[in-house]
Fold these 2 entries.
Entry 1:
Amino acid sequence: MKKTLLALLAATCLQPAFAADLSPTEQAIVAAVKANNAQGLALLEKSVNINSGTMNHAGVRAVGALFRQEFDALGFQTRWSEMPAAMQRAGHLIAEREGKQGKRLLLIGHLDTVFEKDSPVQLWERHGDRVRGQGVSDMKGGDVIIIQALKALKQAGALDNTTIRVVFTGDEEDAGSPKEIARKDLIDAARRSDLALAFEGTSRNADGKDTATIGRRSSSSWVLEVKGKQGHSSAIFRGGYGAIYEAARILDAFRREVPEPDLTFSPGLILGGTEVTEQPELAKGSAFGKTNVIPNSVVVHGDMRYLDYAQRDRARAKMSAIAAQNLAGTSATIRFHDSYPPMSPTEGNRKLLAQYSQASIDAGLGEIVAVPPGLRGAGDVAFVAPLIDSLDGMGAAGNGAHSPNEDLDIPSIERSTIRTALMIYRLTR
Ligand SMILES: [Zn+2]
């Protein structure tokens, strides 16, 4: 009884609070977001129907051109930043406007997806309030949220005199090398900004609350190369174990001995036999081997994600030691490569989350809570997080990113756009 009464009171208090906690301009911003929502979904569909796997440069450019028109229409200065040809990456879209008031914002998105041109995954397949497709939540949904939020601000007259820089990278899923060039535009923009907001996909937590990201793990990679003595298969336990048994031993020991909280490592590609050819830049390769021949080579490509450098060094030392204890007639080497730095969960990032959550509460959309940093992999925001306060996971809600089941909760676009627009408005006063 008491509970019911309280719930009733809470419910009746929430309704008028919505209008009371938003200024007239903020209410106009929310109204504009809602009025433009169908248009935003159409833009998302158009962008998702263009395959933009990182290596499909024409596709990445086409998605960039589509979004560039939107920023042009909003009065931003736009340009396409080309990467040197040797890097084999499409480049980035940059849109900027300069003003004198409030905080200077950097908004981060990406144009590419993990689904290359030959991917069997459907481009766009809508079922009621959900849509499955290539990059719907990672992260074309987030890109559209940025555009729709800015559009609503413009319509409410709230964009004037603000400083906003937008960088949509064309190679977030597989950043070009060297990173100093691949991420120069992003880092330059961060140096001229006070804080960064990134729009990677989000999800609801177990309590049904929307979330955002104040910390992310790094991304790094490793390559394990195993050699064995080639011979007749009938001699396998006398003449040396061959490269495939040794690779299996090493990988299994990694799984059993190296794990710790917030650390993951996963072999993503393995090739083994007597002839192994690799095309690492295409994440492809081929192998030849006969069942009556002891295989002499294996190569494994894997990733590793960590929250800080001490954890990285501990894991690498254990993996190197495991790879050095070889079975008879085999040898192995392992190489490690850093890719994205970790984004540490700082006080400044927590403060941005609090502001984002407040905007959401004021709009009647509920509190936003932090995702445990150990659950998030790397993102472009990590390159700017060492320089300025940053918040990520402000994009669309969905499941199964990077898998054929990647999907998006369509109503989350409007929710995130409202919060984003209100937050940008408040930060730029
Ligand atoms: Zn992404």
Note: The pocket of zinc ion is lined by residues 110, 138-139, 172, 200 (CB under 6 Å).
Entry 2:
Amino acid sequence: MNTRTRILISVLVLATLGAGTYAATQAFFSARRTTTENRFQTGTLDLNVAENGGQAADPFVIDNAGADGEISGSKTWTVKNTGSLPGRLFLRLQNVDNKENGCNDPEIEAEPDCASTTQGELGNVITLNVALDGVNAVSSTLATNQQAAIGTAWNGLTPIILQPNQTVEVGLNWAAGADDYGNEVQSDSVTFDADFRLIQVTNNGPTPTN
Ligand SMILES: [Ca+2]
Ligand SMILES: [Ca+2]
């Protein structure tokens, strides 16, 4: 390699280094600071439903209906948001089950097709009211085909938002007057579940419904 060639190579190497340096100095302004102990933790949404007296909610059993000429009763729960996030409270009825439970002669007289069905009529004559802090808010009969009515009416209420640790008294009271039914409900029964849900309140999420 002659002197001229070595100089030319040195110039090329320098030019290459220079290009590399140039590229390196084109970086944009930036600043960096590292924070520690970042933590993303999901909040909690939980619900406690306690029958007044502190017991867990019992199933509904309406039996011996009509023994005193009138059907009525009530239950009240304290519903509490035991999580760390606000939630919207929903209530709906599920598993509404009207049973015939056999047909005696007086029932057949009042309900000729009694023996051909298994679905009783007791729920048809009972009106259920749901009260919030003692004030009736929604109501429906307990007819099987009306199972969705309470939940649908609930959707139309002003949203019931429970903040963490907040409680609301939810009462169910039911009644059928002595003149509201006859022998067609002899031995009939109705059972149902009250399904409470607490759904997280979000700014942009879809509006939950029952
Ligand atoms: Ca019956
Ligand atoms: Ca019946």
Note: Residues 3-24 form the longest helix (22 residues).
